[in-house]
Prior knowledge:
three-stranded parallel β-sheet
Amino acid sequence: MGCSDIDMIDDMDNLIEIVRQAAKEGALLLYTLADPSMAEATKKACDLWGVPCTDVLRPTIDAIASHIGVAPSGISRSSASRKGQLSEDYFQRIEAIDFTIKQDDGAQPQNLARAHIVLVGVSRTGKTPLSIYLAQKGYKVANVPIVMGIDLPKALFEIDQDKIFGLTINPVVLQAIRKTRANTLGFHGQKSNYAEMEHVRQELDHANQIFVRHPTWPRSLEKL
């Protein structure tokens, strides 16, 4: 059993890479992040990749803040504000991350028009990690799941269709991801078609039928 100590994390790219590495190694992630948006993004990424995690200092910080009646600033000692005024870009990225987290997995469809990018796809196609990555670049991102038997939100078809991106994936890869996710959640051995190939193909076929009706959706993000 080993232990790694990583400090001075103030970039979402580095944070996501740490979570991915923890998932690969089957590690427990203990973190202390002053920025609430970074902390929430870490929790979301850990939930996505099945990494057990704990925000070590948050209960203590919240207790102190409640006791003295002052909200924590969310600014770390190494942040730009310790060296000078925070840039407009910094605040835009924080706002984008906050928006993106709140719009995860189809939440608050009434806000889709406010998003710069909307990702759609079946479960486990990488909508959430891609959303968080793009948010760190300053994009406000919403993601909407495609689920058989459930209509997509009406608001999705009322917004600018050029900002909607449909995510596709190889069925074999998707099945492997779902099997890993099911095992992480303790579903191994339980009766479920979530990771069965027939069901995976049916879901992807259903998504592809939607994409055929909306041909601008499945395209490369590099076209942004």
